[in-house]
Design goal:
The complex is a heterotrimer of chains A (about 550), B (about 350) and C (about 350). Chain A has about 550 residues and is mostly helical. Chain A is built from 24 helices and no strands. Classes of the chains: A mainly alpha (about 550), B alpha+beta (about 350), C alpha/beta (about 350).
């Protein structure tokens, strides 16, 4: 191919003659198309399978009051979790960004750290402390006539476990939004006679809506697809019902039919957020200066108390429970269980999943951003199907599909990785998209005009600029893969264990002490990449490229 | 001004820190009621901090502020911004993006008469745009709405913080003039902070020049320009340069000529603006020979850089219709007026 | 052309890495067609790892053959076998209950067993058609916390479970194969309508639902619930670790089909010799002794004594039903459980 025309003048350099405009590699387009197709295979198969059972059977499976009850319970949980998560995240974000709270950054990091705990570990910690024989319950019951032991099971427990450990998704988005909000809005409001409260609710809060909606959607989808916490805390939601139907029924079209409802629910949540977000006016002002910080004054100690209590509940408590279990097992001479093999298993699949997912996101994003066409953008959009597909649904779809048509793949690590890729591709796409879109094409063109080849441009310009975003995406995929439970349970090869499945099997048998070591190892392994690649950039980077903020 | 009615704003001994550095370093300033006063100074001189302290967004470390004779900042006194009845207009207007134009204006007059919204929107000439969202307005319209919003609650004073800085050059002048007329018509005490000396001089009836946290001079625009009290003010306002001279008995002698002046006898520095000099046309006597060595052409006039035989250079403003080619040798002379010589 | 190279490099590199990694890590458990004589024996086990894992290790050591186990619920694995059909990578299916074995055998997925294998156990404990064989006997029981409820208050029949006084105070594991088989037996004995009524009564009594029997025993010991429906040996195993645990077994003996002795069994899914060798090992005296002494189940092979602490098998009430009937009733029972809402 001839050298592209360069360096004649700025006009020539910016407007390429049509025939010489770089075309997107057909090979890479093929990879992108295949990825998009794979991401949508589960969806298609579930639909086929559910409909294939015949309308009568389908209706018999889902058209019952039980389904309505499930739906109501699931929605009640979603609503409660989102409300509680917002109630925690909003004041937390505000005090760490907009007040003179001492050690703001440290508090912000602490506030985001619960991300590393999987919901089933959170649930176990809750049972161990506030359950009927929990350490805290026993203590309370010894000193007071209050009986709290039963509360932890059912709605209350599931609500607490999920809200206390998912609010960081909202928190991180809110921190970025608050930091980017020009203080002039608040000051205008104050000078127009509005006090602090009216200013917050009338001016600040409305402008945090994109972050609130986006974060709430993440939390809602997490709740809808959560399996570990609701089963340990015995609150039956759709995901749990699907798992049970899969596990305990010969007729798997029931699970498929329920999956269909769950997908509709998830798509509904996404569409709802989209509708809300579309009605928002475009954001205009970016913060031109540091916000002035409100004085906490007499509120300083109550706020610190609140933050401290929160950290105790969602950091000290789960860690303490795991350590305590481990210590007690050692003391009683119980086996801790070997953690080596599941640790290697978790680390291996999480690394590969992160690498592959981010790798596959690159051609899709470069195609859509650098060579926009109706096709490339559609490919990018439908590749995000996993966003609406709970892990259990992806797993079942792959089982159905593969046992029928691709048996050699069945029960292989490759298939497990495929499930992770489908599930977490949206996370990688969001990060990669934000990273690539934030690199102005002009840099690449400048490099070309200075004599760099396309390879040289990619190596010296695009990749270095995009790398932080890719790393953030990889970090997020790594973390979520480490924590993933339902798809892993269903799809893992015979004899293959991860830390998540080890924790789960200990919990399922009620032998909690054996969950201690894998739990601690999981947290220890997930912590550094989560902090370095997800939390730190989100707290520092004005663009918040790790968030889903770049989605729209 | 002694014995006149209370000042609209009375700032005394004000000290404001910005982080660890002193932003406002003991400022005393009186703002006259009913007119526009501008505060001008280079970036980082503390003018914005001063304005924000008046509005209530900065807490001074020392000093006092009174508005319409009511103390809002003082020892043991702090009135929060929402109770100061001070309207503020920000750089980009800061219209609330989620509220329509009318709702923005109504924000500050909750419970007040609905007619007030139409009234102030009418005042800024945007009566028919109340239903629009802010992002549907041009930059100039946004700025006018911001003024209307600030006026709506009938504040005691209006503060403008670099309100035109983000408008492009042609628009800026028009919006500036619009806003000036609106505020004049409203007859409201206004303080405008700007780093643009042309803006400060053209919009305001009084100008305060600020530098390094201190107020250097407060005067009418023409006095600031023609009779700067210090070399620093002279240098900041308008073009010009300081040249060495010697004064004796009200007359100075410099390389560019002689003239009458204020200032003490002895060596001093004379401040010359380009329009203080002229190129003498053919046939006129006097002046000093000089060579044109550079030129900035503005259309209506021209700034020529000339060099004396002694090597000193200075800029001379001439009409564009009379210029000679660059490299020509001309004679330049000082116009006759009373000059300031700084020691 | 250069451009294509670049893009393919950055796009395909991760794919290559993945191929490499999965190739490396796939070795164990990968379906290399259990046919090969030296390949691993692939087992689908509805029995908990803790109930059979050590035995499999002994087999590995003794036979020098690798065993790959996929643990799951009996119904889950049975459904998986049905889904996989003839392509299943499994060699041996170990089931927690006879009914699920019958269902898989009914789909023609189990190979006929040689007489020598079948004859190890009495006729009552094997499939009439010779497609599966029992490994151990297990009795349904009520485990209760002696500190929270008096023995006289513990329900003695399935019908009594629906007594409102137990509301929210007991645990069951609805996804568990043993419970499902017990309910299927109830349906066979008392009729489908009675089963639906029973299920509705249980649901109305708001039981705490657990994923497994062992978790119920732990919950009873911990006092989370007063009693639960389990198999008898889970408690005995728990007591062997903690003799002071405040819990006891009670065997129901009133009402319809309230006592039930089920059996764990196995069937051969592939023709591999490894699967059969493992099955024969599980029927050996050594393995039967393990069931008797380590897991506290009833050994089925003549000459191996049950643990001394157990009631003799003959003393336990169990209805006169044949397992073929139960197998046939299993799927409708599962659908009935599903539509009862017990699992939702």
């Amino acid at each position: 191919m001839s050298a592209p025309p360069i360096s004649v003048g700025s006009a020539r350099a910016l407007v390429w003659p049509l025939r010489d405009r770089p075309r997107f590699s057909p090979l890479l387009a093929g990879v992108a198309l295949a990825t998009a197709a794979t991401a949508n295979a589960p969806l298609a198969y579930i639909v086929i399978r559910a409909l294939g059972a015949g309308p009568e059977r389908l209706w018999a499976s889902i058209g019952t009051p039980l389904t309505v009850g499930l739906l109501a319970r699931t929605l009640a949980l979603v609503g409660g979790v989102v409300a509680l998560a917002v109630a925690i995240a909003l004041p937390l974000a505000w005090v760490v960004v907009r007040t003179d709270l001492p050690a703001r950054r440290a508090w912000a990091v602490l506030g985001a750290l619960p991300l590393v705990f999987p919901s089933y570990v959170a649930a176990l910690a809750l049972v161990a402390t506030l359950g009927p024989r929990g350490y805290v319950s026993l203590w309370i019951e010894a000193w007071t006539p209050i009986r709290i032991g039963g509360l932890v099971y059912g709605y209350t427990g599931a609500l607490l476990a999920l809200a206390l450990f998912t609010y960081p998704y909202i928190f991180l988005l809110l921190v970025a939004a608050l930091r980017d909000l020009d203080p002039a809005y608040e000051e205008s409001s104050r000078s127009l006679g509005a006090g602090r409260w009216r200013t917050f609710f009338g001016v600040v809060l409305p402008q945090l809506r994109p972050a609130l909606y986006g974060g709430s959607l993440l939390v809602a989808l997490y709740t809808v697809s959560d399996f570990g916490a609701v089963s340990i805390l015995r609150f039956n939601t759709f995901t749990l019902a699907i798992y049970n139907a899969y596990r305990a029924l010969f007729d798997r079209s029931v699970a498929a039919a329920l999956s269909l409802v769950l997908i509709v629910l998830a798509v509904g949540l996404i569409a709802g957020e989209g509708l809300l977000a579309r009605r928002l006016p475009p954001h205009r002002l970016r913060a031109s200066r540091m916000p002035s910080r409100a004085r906490l004054g007499a509120w300083k100690w109550p706020v610190i108390l609140f933050l401290g209590a929160l950290a105790v509940v969602n950091l000290v408590l789960p860690l303490g429970v795991l350590v305590f279990w481990g210590a007690r097992a050692v003391e009683l001479g119980h086996p801790l269980g070997s953690v080596w093999q599941p640790a290697v298993g978790s680390l291996g699949v999480a690394l590969v999943a992160a690498l592959v997912t981010v790798g596959l996101s690159i051609p899709i994003v470069i195609w859509a951003v650098r060579h926009p066409s109706r096709l490339s953008r559609a490919v990018e959009r439908i590749s995000r199907a996993g966003f609406a597909l709970p892990g259990i649904v992806i797993a079942l779809a792959l089982v159905f599909f593969v046992t029928r048509y691709l048996l050699p793949l069945y029960q292989t690590l490759a298939l497990l990785i495929v499930a992770y890729v489908i599930r977490f591709l949206p996370e990688a796409l969001a990060a990669t998209q934000a990273a690539v879109a934030s690199v102005s094409r002009r840099f690449e063109e400048a490099a070309r005009s200075l004599g760099q080849s396309q390879l040289g441009t990619l190596r010296t310009m695009t990749l270095p600029l995009v790398r932080p975003g890719l790393l953030a995406g990889a970090g997020l995929v790594f973390l979520t893969t480490m924590k993933e439970l339902p798809a892993t349970l269903v799809l893992r090869p015979t004899g293959f264990e991860t830390l998540a499945t080890r924790i789960w099997s200990s919990a399922a048998e009620g032998i909690y002490s054996q969950a201690a070591l894998p739990g601690l190892v999981l947290v220890a392994v997930a912590l550094p990449p989560t902090y370095l690649l997800v939390i730190r950039p989100a707290l520092e980077d004005r663009d918040g490229t790790t968030s889903r903020g770049g989605d729209r | 001004m002694i014995g006149s009615p209370p000042k609209a704003i009375d700032v005394a001994g004000l000290v404001v820190y910005r982080g660890d550095s002193l932003a406002v370093d003991g400022v005393d300033l009186e703002i006259e009621p009913g007119i526009i006063t501008s505060i001008v100074g280079p970036s980082g001189c503390g003018k914005t901090s001063l304005l924000r302290a008046i509005a209530g967004f900065e807490r001074p470390a020392a000093g006092s502020i009174a508005i319409d004779g009511e103390s809002v900042v003082g020892p043991d006194r702090w009135v929060p911004p929402e109770r100061r009845r001070v309207g503020m207009v920000f750089q980009e207007g800061a219209l609330f993006p989620h509220l329509s134009v009318a709702e923005n204006v109504r924000y500050g007059i909750r419970g007040g008469p609905e007619s007030r919204v139409a009234e102030v929107l009418g005042l800024v000439g945007l009566a028919e745009l109340g239903h629009r969202m802010p992002h549907e307005l041009s930059g100039g319209q946004q700025q006018r709405v911001a003024v209307a919003r600030a006026l709506a609650p009938s504040p005691r004073v209006i503060l403008l913080d670099e309100p035109f800085v983000n408008l492009d050059a042609t628009l800026r002048e028009r919006v500036r003039e619009d806003v000036r007329q609106i505020l004049d018509r409203a007859g409201i005490t206004t303080v405008l902070v700007t780093h643009d000396q042309e803006e400060a001089l053209s919009v305001a009836r009084r100008v305060a020049v600020m530098d390094a946290g201190r107020i250097l001079q407060v005067d009418a625009p023409e006095d600031i320009y023609l009779r700067p009290e210090s070399a620093r003010v002279a240098e900041f306002i308008g073009d010009g340069q300081l040249v060495p001279c010697t004064v004796e008995g009200g007359t100075f002698v410099s390389a560019f000529g002689t003239g009458s002046c204020e200032g003490t006898d002895g060596d001093g520095r004379l401040f010359l603006r380009p329009e203080d000099l002229e190129q003498l046309s053919e046939g006129r006597d006097g002046g000093v020979p000089a060579t044109i060595v550079g030129r900035r052409f503005y259309g209506h006039d021209v700034l020529d850089r000339v060099r004396l035989d002694s090597g000193e250079e200075i800029e001379v403003r001439c009409l564009s219709s009379t210029v000679l080619p660059v490299e020509s040798v001309v004679r330049i002379a000082l116009r006759r007026r009373l000059y300031r010589v700084f020691s | 052309m250069k451009r294509i190279e670049i893009y393919s490099k950055c796009g395909l590199l991760p794919l290559a890495i993945v191929g490499l990694l999965t190739a490396c890590s796939e070795r164990p458990g990968e379906g290399e067609e259990g046919m090969a004589e030296s390949g691993p024996v692939v087992v689908y086990s509805g029995r908990n790892e803790s109930l059979i894992g050590p035995l499999l290790e002994r087999f590995e050591a003794a036979s020098d053959r690798e065993v790959q186990v996929r643990y799951g619920e009996t119904a889950e694995l049975a459904a998986t076998l049905l889904e996989e059909g003839a392509n299943s990578p499994a060699d041996l299916f170990i089931s927690q209950d006879a009914a699920a074995l019958g269902a898989v055998a009914g789909a023609g997925l189990l190979r006929p067993l040689p007489a020598a294998t079948l004859d190890r156990v009495p006729e009552r404990f094997r499939s009439p058609g010779g497609s599966w064989v029992g490994l151990s006997g297990r009795a349904r029981s009520v485990v209760y916390n002696t500190g929270l409820i008096a023995e006289d208050d513990v329900p003695r029949s399935l019908e009594a479970v629906t007594d409102p006084r137990y509301r929210g105070r007991f645990g069951i594991a609805p996804a568990n194969g043993s419970l499902q088989a017990h309910l299927a037996v109830y349906g066979v004995v008392a009729g489908e309508e009675a089963l639906s009524e029973l299920l509705a009564g249980i649901v109305a009594n708001e039981p705490a639902t657990y994923p497994k029997n062992s978790a119920i025993v732990q919950a009873v010991i911990a006092g989370e619930v007063e009693w639960g429906l389990v198999n008898h040996y889970y408690l005995l195993r728990a007591l062997s670790e903690d003799p002071d645990a405040p819990a006891k077994n009670l065997f129901m003996n009133e009402g319809e089909a309230s006592g039930f002795v089920n059996l764990a069994g196995a069937g051969l899914v592939s023709e591999s010799t490894g699967g059969l060798a493992l099955l024969d090992f599980l029927l050996s005296d050594e393995a039967q002794l393990y069931f008797a002494q380590e897991t506290y189940e009833y050994p089925l092979v003549a000459g191996v004594e049950a643990a001394a602490s157990l009631l003799p098998l003959a003393d336990l009430a169990t209805p006169e039903v044949d397992f073929a009937q139960v197998s046939a009733a299993l799927e409708p029972t599962l659908m009935a459980i599903n539509s009862s809402g017990l699992m939702r």
